[in-house]
Amino acid sequence: MPGPFPGRVVRVHSEKSVGNSTHQVDAPTVREMLSRGMQSLTGAKTDRDAWATFFDPKDVVGIKLNCSGAPDICSAPDVVAGIAENLVALGIPAKNIYLYERFQDQVASVHYDRFVPAGVNIFAAETRRGSIGSYDPNTYVETNFFGEEDTRSNMIRLITERFTKIVNVPNMKDHGAAGVTGCLKNIAYGSFSNVARSHSGAKTNTLSFIGTLANVEPLRSRTVLQIMDGLRGVWHGGPFSTDARFRFYPKTMMFGTDPVAIDRLLLDIIENKRKAEGALSIWDRSMDHVRQGPLDPRYGAFIREPGHIEFAGKLGLGVYDLARIQTTSIEV
Amino acid sequence: MTLLLAAILPALASGPPAADAVKLETPNVEYRTNVASASTSPWIDANGWRILRQPARKYYYEVRPASVALAAAEAFVYGAHAKISTDTAGVGIFNRMLAFLGGLSDSNWPAMANIGVVDDGSDETGELMNMLSRRNLLYRIVKAPDPHLDLNVRIGSAQYPKSDAADPSVLAQKIRAELTDEKRLLRLYGSEVVIARLMGTGHGIRIHLLNYSNRPVTALRVRVLGSYPNAHIAAFDKPDLKVEDLTLSDGATEFTVPEMSAYAVVDLARQP
After folding, report:
1. Which residue range(s) make up the domain with A268?
2. Residue A38 counted as domain residue
3. CA of A175, closest CA in chain B: separation in Å?
């Protein structure tokens, strides 16, 4: 990160990609969106050439899911299947493709196995919450936020020892602590253990921790492609999606190699939706608007930290300045 | 100097407890999710600090089978003269633990500590020792400040006034900050329900690991100061267990205990 296309984002929208009332994804449309997005990003004339820009048959590829809002809001199985199919078509054996996420219960609720090519691995780092057995004991960030005894966040071992490349597939979601959860939050907090400690109080450490984790090698250099699944989204209550009232349908996918640029666009998408719904701004920093209890768009459980994206930009992870972000919009 | 009396093994109670015996709490973890607290850590009911305070006393536990193994191991680790009362189902578990404890090699080594606690016998000091134990801030009870230790604590002193003791959790954090994590002889990662006791000399150390939950702990990462390339683990109910990912760096030894139930012992040595 930010890869070969810093500051470049391809937005593909299709009104028919998902039904507002049915919540169902139209698989052929999603495949077309994937194809158009990848070809536009890379300038390739065929899907094979587009994917070959990033991968070759010897790669072992991790596909970073987002399942915290599962089963209703997550990396859509049709999107994930499309990615896996393109990798297989390129000559990467299915056994060298891993869908990965941290929590087994969330991943299991989606049933990705019914969608992806046979042989693709589906991996969750924590079959039991809190267990660090699937993390690399030698690759970690150590910091003490509030006096917690366990001060380490370890990287998933598959990333350090097995994957040669990673595709990041976040959603378009509000996040009560981070402001939004997009590329950066998904790849950072989804690849390390013991991260929730950064938002244990109303004033969180997400501002710096998200970028800090995303910046750790080999995660940074192996994450070569960002495909944001914004077919369905969450404008309040994220990263979870327990209340259907707070879901919306951007019907958009964003493609790039620069997580900061994509997330910068996401900030406006979530903020504009919240404004339209009369919700608290993601930029609000008043403790008067922090309240625990049932979800209420006028309040938050934390002071949100949307500045984590600019912070990551300053670490060199991508381009934050809107004036320097080149966006290509495609309608399918 | 506090010594682990390895020869002291717990026994099953055959009748009512002696009149002068002190009842110990059932060792376990309480997950108080509906209670506001200073931290999100689970609450551990552990007795080590009580035993260390009065090592010559007689103790007894009244526990259900699920807690028998841990109670027996706890009594052993802290050298308690303890009897355990349980039901028929617990007897088999107790006997298995007793066989395990009896099979451990002797290591009549002193307890290792960073902190000296001057015990005035007060409830405040007792609660502080409880908090230090739960956070694996290794301490030793001393009669007067010991200059060989990194830090000495006497509640009521200018550095640790009695007002500090009103919140033992905050006081324990203060002590940790003053000690610094870098100087800690032992750190545990990956679990908040394991309490360790460290015994040893310059040439070798023994780490006792007590799991206070009723579930196995997996992938416990242990860090101890000092370079010990040779490790041997003995874990209750896990006869073939081996430590994993042992590394030596920055003057410390780290390794992973892949899985443990109530109790495990790791012996580290500089030489094979």
Report:
1. 8-331
2. yes
3. 21
